[in-house]
Amino acid sequence: MKNLRKVVFPAAGLGTRFLPVTKSTPKEMLPIVDKPLIQYGVEEALKSGFKDIIIVTGKGKNAIEDYFDYSYELEDVLSKRQDKEILEEIRRMPKEVDVAYIRQKNPLGLGHAIMCAENLICEEPFGVILADDIIDAKIPVLKQLAEVAKKMNAPVIALMEVSKEMVKKYGIVKGKKINNRLWEIEDMVEKPDISSAPSNLAIIGRYILPSKIFYYLKKVKPGKNGEIQLTDALKMYAKNNKIYGYLFEGKRYDGGDKLGYLEANIRFALKRKELKKGLLKILSQVIENEHK
Question: At what angle do helices 258-270 and 273-290 cross, to 10 degrees?
């Protein structure tokens, strides 16, 4: 797979697990310390060599478009205050990112969201990042997948080992092991019972996909609530084509889950020198008080 330069960010979901805040604030704009979820994903894409960002938005998601645009009034205030460090940070994203937006009028599943971007992909292979999967990795996960995709000349899905008790929350793959990290995928099962799960290898929100996936997405029959699932299209694709799963290197946090989101905030705050000492003091005090 060559010419990997486009990444699709599905961002039209309703974020119901974080209501009531997501009634007015897009889930993708919830902060991890002082940056929104989606910025971590966009930064990963840029560090992975992808230049064109395609964000699939929906009703009530204008804040995402505003965030990646210039804010001249705010810049003027910061400039007058001579707050150069924050000013540079505010200007950085609009300078670095080339963003296109497409609207998903109805939230009809991940597969449907990706279908909305078809006209902007133009028959090229592309990446997909789900912003609520936050991954802290020395080598960006999308870059890890891209390198495998180029080597194998085939699409690649990010995988993570989960406990048996957790398989019912994920799409799980069945496959043939090639090495310690690479699997050739034979089948996928969405949220299986422990007794019927083919493995404990869960699909995580990073993909390198061929443009041919749109053909299979159009063949998928809508499931519950009329949703079109990417997993169903990938299953069809895998019957006649090679597709791989890669156990990525890095620590993943589930930003779509309240505990996962809180953990990500704590972990990323502890990586900040100016916050670490104070946060550890607060956490130790909280733990001490809880044990009284």
Answer: 130
Asked if omega into 20 is within 30° of 0 (cis), the reply is yes
CATH code for the part of the protein at 6-256: 3.90.550.10
Instruction: For residues 1-5, give the mean pLDDT.
Output: 82
- DSSP letter, residue 272: S
To the nearest whole percent, how much of the chain has pLDDT over 90?
Answer: 69
Q: How many Å is the Cα radius of gyration of the chain?
A: 20
Q: How far is CA 265 from CA 34, 95, 171, 247, 258, in A?
A: 9, 26, 25, 24, 11
Region of 163 please: left (phi>0), alpha (psi -120 to 50) or beta. beta
Per-residue model confidence (pLDDT) at position 149: 96
Smallest Cα–Cα separation from 204: which of 263, 253, 148?
A: 253
Residues 92, 54 contacting (CB under 8 angstroms)? no
Amino acid (1-letter code) at residue 132? D
Q: Are 58 and 113 in contact (CB under 8 A)?
A: no
Select from 41, 105, 104 the least CA-distant residue to 67.
Answer: 41
CB 119: neighbour CB atoms within 10 A? 9
pLDDT score at 94: 67
Beta-carbon contacts of residue 61 (< 8 Å; ≥ 6 apart): 11, 12, 26, 28
* pTM to 2 decimal places: 0.93
Identify whether the C-beta of residue 54 lies closer than 8 Å to the C-beta of residue 11: no
| Residue 41 Cα to chain centre, angstroms | 6
Closest CA to 56 of 1, 132, 118: 118
DSSP SS3 for 170:
coil
CA-wise closest residue to 202 among 223, 243, 230, 174:
174
The rounded distance, in Å, linking the Cα atoms of 162 and 169 is: 10
